[in-house]
Amino acid sequence: MTIENALRAARSKIERADAEILLAALLAVSRTHLHAFGERALAADCALAFAQLVERRALGEPIAYLLGRRDFHALTLEVSAAVLIPRADTETLVELALAHLPQAQARRVLDLGCGSGAIGLALKAARPDIVLTLIDQSAAALAQAKANADRLGCPARLLESDWFAALEHERFDMVLSNPPYLAADDPHLREGDLRFEPRGALVAGPTGLECFAAILREAPLHLAPGGLLAFEHGAEQGASVRALLSESGLREVKTRPDLAGLDRVSFGWAQ
């Protein structure tokens, strides 16, 4: 079987672009290479591995999980079904944090509910001077974050913890979080990639606001004076999250839109 024949066969089950991405990754070549050398024969073991990937994709399994990686804010992160797939929307939170990190001195930064480590490691890669702590209550997610930190050469302290529980009285200059924020009955949970991602990293509870409230009960005890707390949230949650931030005593509470102009990150400063 040639490269082009394999791609044509896959087209009956999945999108051509998806098939090209999978085969290019399997062969460790570019998609342009596939176009240029479509008449080249595939080894039998490669053809079989490709067919298996196509079947998994046809069932809806995310490309990121099939490849085991996802690009995020100039990094390539390893991902698995233990963590959420990093998304471009979350880069809004990274950009906000970078805009508020002083250049003259190091800052203590906490990525709370870190998953793959995407937020914290993107900051550490851009600002090696920060002192980074990554926290997640999932041991499997934390192992994924550690693998990424080690591979990328981004030193970080990693703690398995239910939000702030393992931190005692420690304070941070910046606390960032993309916590679960979907309601348990959110119809999006039955669509697309969300069907395959860890439910515990997606669903907050009946309203979708439960994790924000839980974090904010303890956050004032862990923010240094003038420290920044910023959340990623759903596009329709801006007003609710701002209200929770204000009620917790944070000042200058605002929301920053994502590239689509939708409410995406709400934040405020400690007194």
Question: What features would you describe in this structure?
Answer:
The protein is α/β, with parallel strands linked by helices and 271 residues long. The chain folds into 2 domains: 3-59; 86-269, Rossmann fold, CATH 3.40.50.150. 36% of the residues lie in helices and 21% in strands. The protein has 10 helices and 11 strands. The protein has helices at residues 3-10, 16-27, 31-36, 44-58, 63-67, 91-99, 118-126, 139-152, 210-218, 238-247, and strands at residues 69-72, 75-78, 108-112, 131-136, 157-160, 172-177, 182-183, 203-205, 223-232, 251-257, 263-269. The strands form 3 sheets. The protein has a 7-stranded mixed beta sheet, with helices on both faces. It has a two-stranded antiparallel sheet with strand order 1-2. It has a two-stranded parallel ribbon with strand order 7-8. α1 (3-10) packs across α2 and α6 (91-99) runs parallel beside α7 (118-126). The longest helix has 15 residues, at 44-58. The N and C termini lie far apart (66 Å). 39% of the residues are buried. The mean pLDDT is 96.
Strands of the largest sheet, in order across it? 5-4-3-6-9-11-10
CATH superfamily grouping of the largest domain: Vaccinia Virus protein VP39
Strand content: 15-25%
User: What summary fits the major beta sheet?
Assistant: 7 strands, mixed
**DSSP E strands, number:** 11
- Compute the number of structural domains: 2
As a whole number of angstroms, the C-alpha radius of gyration is: 21 Å
Secondary-structure element sequence? HHHHHEEHEHEHEEEEHEHEE
Using the alpha-carbon principal axes, give the shape.
Answer: elongated
Estimate the helix proportion, in percent: 25-40%
* End-to-end Cα distance: 66 Å
CATH class of the largest domain: Alpha Beta
- The CATH topology annotation of the largest domain reads as Rossmann fold
Task: Indicate the low-confidence ranges by residue numbers.
Answer: none
Count of DSSP helices? Answer: 10
Label the structural class: alpha/beta
The second-level CATH architecture of the largest domain is 3-Layer(aba) Sandwich
On the 0 to 100 scale, the average pLDDT is: 96
